[in-house]
């Protein structure tokens, strides 16, 4: 619900043709009042300011803008009042259950995913409807009904509100990914990791994405780098089908090569000794494939991005030890860890750990 009111404030008045430049300038000076609406009036633009510009501000404005005035103007302000899903659910849930209402919601495109506590099972549809009403861009709400499992790392879901459709388009870092959650694995919680890893890739590198899924690492790397070759491998035919479409949609055809098959066999037969960089996003069992990653690396070595679910108070050190031991069995060694960090907590005293290892 939006309420409008009027506020008088200082304004920077400029000809419309200088409007964009004026807005950028007020932002850089910390003067733009974002609560107020910019006014277009008789060939001029009035940009609302948070305060009267100082002499120093005026001097900087004069250097950028050919013509301007500092005036006092009435602006429309919008105050947005939005109800949270919990606020909406409070009308339907018993008071003693409100503390159990799920706070964490994952958004994949137009789909919201929640974990329903056992005490809210019979109210799960109320929870779903509340999330649907609170988030206008959501058309489907799913409840997790199983853990991630199987070779294809799939999870079962129950539709608790909205349309019974698990296919959507997820947008992340300027890329679009076609995702069908009933057929492929996808985690929006790894958004930062996708960008962190992709930002490290250098031009002309060859990258092997060992468990590529629908391509959130591979496609982004190819988007960022103009000259790169990414081999994106997955054992799930549905994931590779979506990956192929995502390659086309994002304009990285020719830079990302999708490959369907078992990574151990694919590397041994096609990708042995080719990679400058290997991505191992299979935290449940990546340690079992360290020998494959080392086989994929060029003889002189390269970088491995390794993910593991590690437990205990020293989860990062535990993951480091597991990777170090596994690498040593391949007659390679780790030069150094350029990064070692906890990505997220997945259960009490259990974390997803990300290691960037330079291996020779």
Percent of residues in beta strands: 25-35%
CATH top level class name of the largest domain: Alpha Beta
State the CATH architecture of the largest domain: 3-Layer(aba) Sandwich
Low-confidence stretches: none
What is the straight-line distance between the termini? 59 Å
> By helix and strand content, what is the structural category?
alpha/beta
How would you sum up this structure, described in words?
This protein is an alpha/beta fold and 360 residues long. It folds into three domains: 2-80, Alpha-Beta Plaits; 85-165, 2-Layer Sandwich (GMP Synthetase, Chain A, domain 3); 186-359, Vaccinia Virus protein VP39 (Rossmann fold), CATH 3.40.50.150. Helices cover 27% and strands 32% of the residues. The protein has a seven-stranded mixed sheet with strand order 13-12-11-14-15-17-16, with helices on both faces. Strands 2-3-1-4 form a four-stranded antiparallel sheet, covered by helices on one side. A four-stranded mixed sheet has the order 5-6-7-8, covered by helices on one side. 37% of the residues are buried. The mean pLDDT is 92.
């Amino acid at each position: 619900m939006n309420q409008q009111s009027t506020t008088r404030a200082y304004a920077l008045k400029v000809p419309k043709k200088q409007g964009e430049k004026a807005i950028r300038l007020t932002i850089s000076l910390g003067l733009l009042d974002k609560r107020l609406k910019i006014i277009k009036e008789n060939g001029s633009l009035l940009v609302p300011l948070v305060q009267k510009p100082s002499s120093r501000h005026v001097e900087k404005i004069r250097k950028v803008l050919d013509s301007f005035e500092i005036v006092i103007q009435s602006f429309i302000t919008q105050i947005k009042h939005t109800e949270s899903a919990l606020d909406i659910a409070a009308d339907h849930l018993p008071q003693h259950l409100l503390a159990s209402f799920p706070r964490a919601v994952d958004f994949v495109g137009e789909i919201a995913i929640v974990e329903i506590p056992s005490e809210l099972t019979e109210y799960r549809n109320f929870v779903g409807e509340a999330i649907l009403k609170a988030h206008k861009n959501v058309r489907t709400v799913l409840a997790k009904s199983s853990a991630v499992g199987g070779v294809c790392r799939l999870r079962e879901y129950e539709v608790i509100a909205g349309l019974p459709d698990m296919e959507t388009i997820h947008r992340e870092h300027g890329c679009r990914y076609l995702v069908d959650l009933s057929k492929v694995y996808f985690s929006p919680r790894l958004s930062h990791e996708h960008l962190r890893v992709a930002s490290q890739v250098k031009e002309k590198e060859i990258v092997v994405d060992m468990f590529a899924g629908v391509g959130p690492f591979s496609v982004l790397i190819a988007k960022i780098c103009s000259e790169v070759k990414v081999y994106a491998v997955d054992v799930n035919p549905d994931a590779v089908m979506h990956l192929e479409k995502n390659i086309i949609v994002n304009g990285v055809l020719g830079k990302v090569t999708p490959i369907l098959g078992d990574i151990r066999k694919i590397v041994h037969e096609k990708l042995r000794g080719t990679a400058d960089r290997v991505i191992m996003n299979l935290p449940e069992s990546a340690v079992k494939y360290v020998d494959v990653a080392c086989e994929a690396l060029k003889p002189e070595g390269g970088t491995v991005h390794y993910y593991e679910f590690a437990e205990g108070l020293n989860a990062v050190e535990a993951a480091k030890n597991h990777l170090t031991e596994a690498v040593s069995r391949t007659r390679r060694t780790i030069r150094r860890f350029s990064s070692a960090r906890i990505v997220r907590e997945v259960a009490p005293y259990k974390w997803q750990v990300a290691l960037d290892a330079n291996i020779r």
